[in-house]
Design a protein that fits this description.
34% of the residues lie in helices and 21% in strands. By secondary structure, it is α/β, with parallel strands linked by helices. The chain has two domains: 179 residues, D-Maltodextrin-Binding Protein, domain 2, CATH 3.40.190; 128 residues, D-Maltodextrin-Binding Protein, domain 2 (3-Layer(aba) Sandwich), CATH 3.40.190.10. The radius of gyration is 20 Å and the shape is globular. InterPro entries: TAT_signal (IPR006311), TRAP_TAXI (IPR011852). Keywords: Signal.
């Protein structure tokens, strides 16, 4: 039994114990499934979603959260659209593109909070001649899994920068192996730092992060992104490297019941310190001061009410 299976088993057991101990005035009603579309196994989407699920069931044992591993943000939009997910983690640019029909049939999304910041990481071997984005011209780069936010963003990044690179769409594990054996020249990944798979590669062979400017014309005009620096100790040679930080949003559709949305917000506000994956460094994770900074993605009415009750 792996760590996630044990966690899910413990979650259900804790819910049963709490349900039996609830006072008479506690909310009652049928159990409600709550499917959380996350990301690739081993990434911070997945780990954050597991931590969130643990706290949700403690806050309201009627809810039965399960974490769905996916290729990433674009896949998560599809799950929301098809009714196969109730909550989803999306990069801000994907969340803003979804209702515009840029990812297939339009889907309306509502935010529950800006939960953390992804770092766009352009990774090359330590001895690579690639020193800036333009050096990828004519080289091969994996932009991420086919339906990931990384691929959506990376495609725009290369196009807006005028860099004609050969691109592949590989999940992180495959991309790491391809970079290590020389089949690709670089990989793009959007996630927390350090990402465990990238840190392991750094320890085996050494990696560098290529600086990425947020000033590329048209790149961040409608997205919640900014210039950030990779925190010290993330990887051996990456401290202080400038790159692009992209807000990550926890979203749903307007169909999510208001009381469920309010419960999730209370967890985000009240259990902040328990929602930070263990490998995280720096300050890219949940901050109660920025939860409502969701750009053009409107808050769900239940979330808005909960924030007003909590903060006035």
């Amino acid at each position: 039994m792996n760590g996630i299976d044990r966690r899910r088993l413990l979650r259900l057991g804790a819910a049963g114990l709490l349900a039996g101990a609830l006072p008479a005035c506690a909310p009652a009603g049928p159990e409600l499934p709550l499917r959380i579309a996350a990301g690739e196994r081993g990434g911070f989407y997945s780990e954050f979603a597991e931590l969130l699920a643990d706290e949700i069931v403690l806050a309201d044992p009627r809810l039965r959260p399960t974490v769905v591993d996916t290729e990433g943000s674009v896949a998560n939009v599809e799950l929301l659209r098809d009714g196969r997910a109730d909550l989803a983690l999306l990069l801000a640019d994907v969340a803003q593109a979804a209702p515009l029909g840029e990812l297939g049939p339009a889907v309306q999304v509502r935010s529950l909070g800006r939960v953390y910041e992804n770092y766009v990481q352009l990774v090359v071997p330590v001895g690579s001649p690639v020193r800036e984005l333009a050096d990828l011209r004519g080289r091969t780069v994996s932009l991420g899994a086919p339906k990931s936010g990384s691929t959506f963003f990376g495609t725009r990044l290369l196009a807006r920068s005028g860099v004609a690179a050969r691109t592949l769409a590989l999940p992180l594990e495959e991309a790491v192996a391809a970079l290590e054996n020389g089949r690709i020249d670089a990989l793009l990944w959007s996630g927390g730092v350090p990402t465990p798979a990238l840190r392991a590669l750094d320890e085996r062979t050494g990696i560098r992060l290529v600086p990425l400017p947020a000033s590329v014309p048209g790149l961040c005009g409608y997205a919640v992104c900014e210039q950030v620096s990779v925190p010290p100790r993330a990887y051996r040679l990456a401290g202080g490297v400038p790159t692009i930080g992209m807000a990550n949003l926890l979203v749903c559709t307007p169909a999510l019941p208001e009381d469920v949305a309010a419960t999730v917000v209370r967890v985000l506000v009240g259990q902040t310190s328990r929602l930070v994956p263990r490998q995280a460094v720096g300050t890219q994770f949940l901050d109660v001061r920025t939860l409502t900074g969701t750009g053009t993605v409107p808050l769900h009415p239940g979330a808005q009410r909960a924030y007003q009750e909590l903060h006035g």
